[in-house]
Amino acid sequence: MKKLVIYYSLEGNTKFIAQLIAETIGAETLELKPKGEIKRHGLTKYFWGGRQVMTKEEPELSSFDEQLNDYDVLFIGTPVWAGSYAPALNTLFSNTNFRDKKIALFCCHRGGKGKIFEKMKERLTGNEIMGEMGFRDPLKKDKENHAGQARIWAKEVMAKL
Ligand SMILES: Cc1cc2nc3c(=O)[nH]c(=O)nc-3n(C[C@H](O)[C@H](O)[C@H](O)COP(=O)(O)O)c2cc1C
Description:
Helix content is 35%, strand content 23%. Strands 1, 2, 3, 4, 5 and 6 form a 6-stranded mixed β-sheet that branches. The model has no long low-confidence stretch (mean pLDDT 96).
């Protein structure tokens, strides 16, 4: 079975979890990178990111070689932005047509997941959702604890296959 962890991460939390999951289950990784994205700090990043979510922006991504339809199992991860997924996933969902895949969803957040998983699932109909997991700013607090949870969860998902 071919396994891929696809993720977007602005500040590293989702990347940290994505890499742990990939190591645990022996998956490849694909980081979604919006072209020309500038790292933003302080409050500016919330206005900049929140506006993109509201306007349902689909940022152009750096091209990737992976043939995504070759994978059977996908873990898809994103930070929560304004109660939803980051705009890079909009681009992913609009440009792929996943069908009959086994998909697990994960997010990183600061305490308010909103309805992120429902929103992701709306874009992934026709696939089997194997699990959902949220991590609260894993790089800021209890890093090792979060890492342990990510490893356990990834194994649980794989055990269901
Ligand atoms: C534009 C923007 C909007 C955010 N909106 C939310 C939110 O609605 N709820 C929440 O719990 N955290 C929110 N956050 C915090 C991030 O989801 C959280 O810090 C996450 O761990 C960051 O993941 P990353 O390091 O992979 O980018 C927001 C962050 C940004 C930059």
